[in-house]
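Hi all, a correction to my earlier message: I attached the wrong file for Permease. Here's the right sequence:
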Amino acid sequence: MTLPKTLSYDLAPDPPVVFFCLVPAPLLSAGAGIWLAFAPAQGFPERFSGLTLALVHWMMLAVALPVMLGALMQLLPVVAAVRLRAPRIIRIMLAPLCWLTAASVIAGFSGMTEHTQSAFSLAAVSGSVLLCVTVFVFFAAVRSVDVVDNTTLTLRYIPLALCVVLFAGVLMAAVFGNLALPALSVGWLLNVHVGVASVAWLAALLAGIASTTVPMFWQTPRPHHWFQKLFPASFWLTSVLLLLPVSQTFALLCMSIAVIVCASWSLLALLKAKRRNDPGYLLWLFACAGWITGAMITFALHCDWLTDSNWQWLAGVLVLVGGVWLPVNAMLVKIIPFLVFLHLRRRLPARSKIPPMQILLPVKQARWQAKAQIVCLLLLLAIPLQTGQLRVAAGLGFAFTQIWLGALLLRVLWKFRVLQKT
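and the right structure:
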């Protein structure tokens, strides 16, 4: 594999389509923090308690998934030189479908409605529509991706992993909604849904995108050829084993090892970064550490070396909040100003004075917001020590950091609108 091709900024989609997926994420995640602080907490923080399941789907389905889909709509044209042929209205539907499906699942798990089965039935229906729209938007385009590096490899095959995740989730929602389906093993579907979602979808997509964006923004060494050949393909190959019930435990162990190796290499590369004062740098360090530690705990749990249920909470927080949301936070702070700067250059006259990215979003505030996010991560990890008090503190603290992030991003968009009119 060669180094990345020249970026095709001229093919970038209209900014409102991408911003509609990305910008609401912090404010929606703030809602998850408030829900953590004040929602009924029976059985919490057990893995299968209603609050835990609701929070996981809130953060991953309502918050992270629209961001990832928005990033794909930006990266496919710019990095892979592939234009999405789907109409604009269809692409705009992706984020609302994520929110509707998430709201239905959250209502079902949280017991917010007496008609729990109806909530899961609605989740199955809306999830099915989301699956169909995802196929329509991305599958025609990804066939044209020319694989030249780790990022383009990810962009070409990553929608397939997402479809497996959505399909397994739709089937489980249909079972919980008591729809007319053949007898299905919920345990098997759960392992496929969680394993593919966390590794073949989230870890692979983060590794693929980061292999281009992190060296570009934080000036780290580019991935070696062996890294580009092994990841994220190794995540997908090990995920295939999840489809066989007899090999699911072995597959989860292999996936944990693959994540540990990939995250460890990434951490070593980050330690060589030249722009260490950038606000997102600290978040990327903790993200890699979260993936490593979370995968180690998962490996130990499946080997029965750890038996306390609190370890499951720690692994989930380390991977989903530390490993997923922290890098998403870092990329939002960097990519939103970058996209605004890019589109201003394209839309304004050649001699127009465009403020640099550091002016569009204050670096000092972004750095303090990142540090506050790390503190909230530590509070979330400590919840099992004193569940009643710490979940309120962690939830409100997390909500505050996300409102702060949302305010920073809205400030950037406000400047974008003002500068377009000048």
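Sorry for the mix-up. DSSP finds 15 helices and no strands in the chain.
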